[in-house]
């Protein structure tokens, strides 16, 4: 078995073209902490910083056949790639904030009509059904968060999970519920725009 720890950066760059995933693992082991520090310094959020570094390493793997270093060392290249990816994340975050700030909520839907009351009941049933269909752990985390009002940290402590695992469950629950209720929500809110 080849020990990639003895290889220099330029040799690793040459070897990664062969498609050996162990080379990527060596690059990961060698530079993960430095890349994470660069990303965290720019983003200020550990979860986003980890995602940023993973994105950079995934792109490196996808581009491995065409990847080469002209002058710089691999560490400099990776730091620059993380910096650029961080800028992309910050740009996306900024656009999302602007979009949220420009959003003006429409007036609450008037539920006085029997049709709208029926649709609202149907939506509530669909949401309950979507929550019920979540995996057990995910459903428990969602229930503790939404119905009992516990914070991510409190849920993590109560269930002996990491905060990232709790966040992951909440993200999945919200996505699944949104996907299961998207059509009905559209049916409810479209008429408001045409009144």
Give an overview of the whole structure.
The chain has 195 residues and is mainly alpha-helical. It folds into two domains: 4-102, RNA polymerase sigma factor, region 2, helix turn helix motif (Rna Polymerase Sigma Factor, Chain: A), CATH 1.10.1740.10; 114-193, Arc Repressor Mutant, subunit A (Orthogonal Bundle). It is built from eight helices and no strands. The chain has helices at 9-16, 21-43, 46-62, 74-102, 114-132, 136-146, 152-159, 163-193. The radius of gyration is 23 Å and the shape is elongated. The protein starts with 8 loop residues before the first helix and ends with a helix.
Mean pLDDT: 81
Distance between termini?
71 Å
Q: Globular, elongated, flat, extended or rod-shaped: what is the shape?
A: elongated
* CATH class identity of the largest domain: Mainly Alpha
Known CATH architecture of the largest domain: Orthogonal Bundle
Number of domains: 2
Structural class: mainly alpha
Profile the largest sheet.
none
CATH topology of the largest domain, what is it called? Rna Polymerase Sigma Factor, Chain: A
Q: Which strand-content bin applies to the residues?
A: under 5%
> What's the tally of helices?
8
The number of E-state strands comes to 0
Task: Specify the helix fraction band.
Answer: over 70%
Primary descriptors:
single chain, 195 residues, mainly alpha, Rna Polymerase Sigma Factor, Chain: A, Arc Repressor Mutant, subunit A, 2 domains, 8 helices, 0% strand, disordered C terminus
Break the fold down into its secondary structure elements and pairings.
Layout: H1 9-16, H2 21-43, H3 46-62, H4 74-102, H5 114-132, H6 136-146, H7 152-159, H8 163-193
Helix pairs in contact: 1-2, 2-3, 2-4, 3-4, 5-8, 6-8, 7-8
């Amino acid at each position: 078995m080849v020990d990639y720890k003895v290889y220099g950066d330029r040799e690793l760059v040459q070897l990664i073209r062969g498609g050996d995933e162990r080379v990527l693992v060596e690059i990961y082991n060698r530079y993960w902490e430095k890349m994470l520090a660069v990303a965290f310094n720019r983003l200020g959020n550990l979860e986003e910083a980890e995602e940023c570094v993973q994105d950079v390493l995934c792109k490196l793997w996808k581009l491995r056949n065409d990847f080469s270093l002209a002058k710089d060392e691999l560490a400099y290249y990776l730091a620059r790639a993380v910096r650029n990816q961080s800028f992309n994340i910050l740009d996306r975050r900024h656009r999302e904030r602007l979009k949220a700030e420009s959003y003006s909520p429409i007036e609450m839907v008037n539920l006085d009509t029997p049709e709208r009351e029926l649709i609202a009941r149907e939506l509530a049933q669909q949401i309950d059904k979507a929550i019920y269909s979540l995996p057990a752990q995910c459903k428990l985390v969602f229930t503790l968060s939404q119905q009992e009002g516990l914070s991510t940290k409190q849920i993590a402590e109560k269930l002996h999970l990491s905060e990232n695992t709790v966040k992951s469950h909440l993200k999945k629950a919200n996505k699944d519920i949104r996907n299961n209720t998207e059509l009905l929500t559209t049916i409810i809110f479209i008429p408001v725009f045409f009144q």
